[in-house]
Write a structure and sequence with these properties.
Keywords: Acyltransferase, Transferase. Belongs to the acetyltransferase family. RimJ subfamily. This is GNAT family N-acetyltransferase. The chain is an alpha+beta fold and about 170 residues long. It has a single domain, classed as Gcn5-related N-acetyltransferase (GNAT) (Aminopeptidase, 3-Layer(aba) Sandwich), CATH 3.40.630.30. The chain contains 5 helices and 7 strands. It has a 7-stranded mixed β-sheet with strand order 1-2-3-4-5-7-6, with helices on one face. β4 (about 85-90), α4 and β5 form a beta-alpha-beta unit. The radius of gyration is 16 Å and the shape is globular. The relative contact order is 0.16.
Length: about 170
């Protein structure tokens, strides 16, 4: 857990330059999240449309003492309308990493989803060599389900990912 007061809030217009810059900077994204150049204004357009709180995806700022440190996201998944689930993730600015902020941000997102949606299952995945994210998910109570082979393509090669889940009924760490 972070010793710092971590909270979540909707993305504001003031966050957009930092968010858009971060998502188009290979060094800011880090080795596990850089998948190549993309439309730098895609998030600004989605923010103008629905504040990044649409029907299928929610993106919330992770803040420490009102300072934007990154974001957490939840995307609605599931083939059947009667059994939706959410896939979650986090991305922090480099200076915010390694301090427990991402773990706490994801824990807060889990709490929010279980409090404000009827979802039973949450999922998250990460590359098999992203040990920091695996530890963060486990600290939030996620259970490792297995390895999905060649699920993502990054830096010229196919990579395996570890799939995690958390059920509403699972016992979570205090």
């Amino acid at each position: 857990m972070s010793e710092e007061p971590v909270s979540l809030r909707p993305i504001t217009e003031a966050d957009l330059p930092i968010l858009c810059g971060m998502l188009n900077d290979p060094e800011a994204l880090g080795e596990f999240q850089w998948f190549g150049w993309r439309d730098p204004d895609r998030f600004r357009r989605r923010w103008a449309e629905h504040g990044l709180l649409g029907e299928e995806q929610w993106i919330l700022a992770v803040v420490v003492r009102d300072e934007f440190c990154g974001f957490v996201a939840a995307s609605r998944k599931g083939m059947l309308p009667t059994a939706p689930y959410w896939s979650i993730g986090a991305q922090l600015l480099p200076q915010a990493r390694g301090r427990g902020i991402g773990t706490e941000g994801q824990r807060l997102l889990v709490d929010y989803l279980f409090a404000h949606t009827p979802v039973m299952r949450l999922e998250a995945d990460t590359e098999v060599t992203n040990y920091a994210e695996q530890r963060a998910l486990e600290k939030c109570g996620f259970i490792r389900e297995g390895v999905q082979r060649a699920k993502t393509f990054r830096d010229g090669e196919w990579r395996d990912v570890v799939l995690y889940s958390l059920l509403r009924t699972d016992v979570r760490p205090a």
